[in-house]
Amino acid sequence: MIGIWILGDQLSPDHPALSALEQQLGAGQARRQCRILLLESSSVLAARRYHRQKLVLVWSAMRHFSEELRQAGWRVDHLETDRFSEGLAGWISHHGLTELQVMEPAERPFRRAIERLTLPIPLQWHPSNAFLWSREDFAAWAQPYKQLRMELFYREGRRRYGVLMEGDTPLGGQWNYDQDNRKAPPKGLAGPQPQWFEPDGITEAVIAKVDQLAAGLEAAGEAGLPGSSQPFGWAVTRQQALAVLEHFIATRLDGFGPYQDAMVTGQPTLWHALLSPYLNLGLLGPLEVIRRLEEAGLERGTPLASLEGVIRQILGWREYTHGLYWWFGEEYPARNHFGAARPLPAWLEQLGGSEMACVDTVLGELKATGYAHHIQRLMVLANYGLIAGLDPQALTAWFHRMFIDGYDWVMQTNVLGMGLFADGGLLASKPYAASGNYINRMGTYCKGCRYNPKQRSGETACPFNALYWDFLARHSDGLRRNPRMALVMKQLEKIPAEELAAIRATATAHMG
Ligand SMILES: Cc1cc2nc3c(=O)[nH]c(=O)nc-3n(C[C@H](O)[C@H](O)[C@H](O)COP(=O)(O)OP(=O)(O)OC[C@H]3O[C@@H](n4cnc5c(N)ncnc54)[C@H](O)[C@@H]3O)c2cc1C
Ligand code: SF4
Hints:
52% of the residues lie in helices and 6% in strands. The chain is built from 23 helices and seven strands. A five-stranded parallel beta sheet has the order 3-2-1-4-5, sandwiched between helices. A two-stranded antiparallel sheet has the order 6-7. Bound molecules: flavin-adenine dinucleotide and iron/sulfur cluster.
């Protein structure tokens, strides 16, 4: 009897171990000759106190997936356990299994943890179907380059999968329409409402379990679980995830591009797709989403800047950051280019209380749903971490715990690389550091803030301003060597010494 262990982020209808077995033995025989295991282990909380919404999403989606497999005739054991290794060992011996099959985990630490297990039976790996590019194909693409760039990788992906192509040329004659996007929000900008779902009985049971776990931790005098568990509206089945995709196409695809970088108070989602939780869990496959977006967009006459824009995120950025995660190797997560070491402020753990309107708004939204959109993550949260010199490993771990779609493969390159430049420029050509001026231009938060976005020093100066110039001054020797920083470094030089001293004193006072 073969055992197939399906991990919590491998909830794919085309799971390669099941497909291979069906192909080999036929549908009926495959179902008779294997048992499937899903392990819901609370041991994950020992290493990381995850946001409650994330725990509910993953465990509820796993329970629904188990049910769907059972209805399709598979023999499924969905076990709640305190430790993965014990749950797995007990299951193998109880059913007298002769071989274990697992799909390659997307995350290196989990792969290593499985490798370390002493299993009584042979283990067979199946290649992952969570990404289009295998690690080997990505390595073959990356090998010849001295400096990797997403744009070149993305173009290769467009050619390789024939997406938005006319023969050998990109549809519309251009690869990238980004310059048509990135508009500042006009007054009163409001996006369409996203699709949410009422929790069913399974989800309600998981919410109760998560709240109980949190209460148990608190009662034992330990840190509880961050975030609110309710209201919970994420999709927990493939059918619901497909409905989210269709709802995105019907309401937000056409408008995806222009306000991609906008940040508006009371508008946490704008035209963003809200697809990452489902892509990262395996409920949706990347190619099916890309093909459906292309087909629907062309049919609807979606502006190319919007259609190309969203496809670039999935075919470009998602594949690229995953490919780089494996390409950069095991040492990457420990990088700390700027030697940043400040501990995380308490308001990050509390998800509020910084007194900065931009930060508190984003944290409030994060607390409610586990979600913030890309620019909120990059230009508010990570930007603060970068210019304030917060410990990059601690901040990466924080993102991993707090975000509904956070996994190690996506954390390292996005937070450590793109957000914090802790890799010294392996991913981004310059640090994404910005002052309050950027947040004021691209968002509406400053209007309700106790700080002044135009002021650089003094008690009411925007902390992003003071920290930004302090960051540039702190690292001026290294940053001067980066040609893409030349302009801002010139601006830094023009600040009179006395004023720079006042700005830096404001930054120091802010950090306490
Ligand atoms: C500091 C920081 C932290 C991030 N943390 C995560 C995370 O925990 N999980 C995660 O999936 N993404 C993360 N991202 C990437 C990106 O911000 C999210 O994928 C996106 O905001 C998810 O929301 P959405 O589905 O509405 O995306 P949209 O903006 O609508 O984009 C559509 C899809 O493109 C993909 N995508 C876009 N950009 C990226 C990217 N840079 N890397 C990977 N995929 C991308 C996602 O699958 C997303 O669903 C992070 C980015 C930064 C800068
Ligand atoms: S003034 Fe500064 S701290 Fe306040 S919302 Fe604007 S950017 Fe954020």
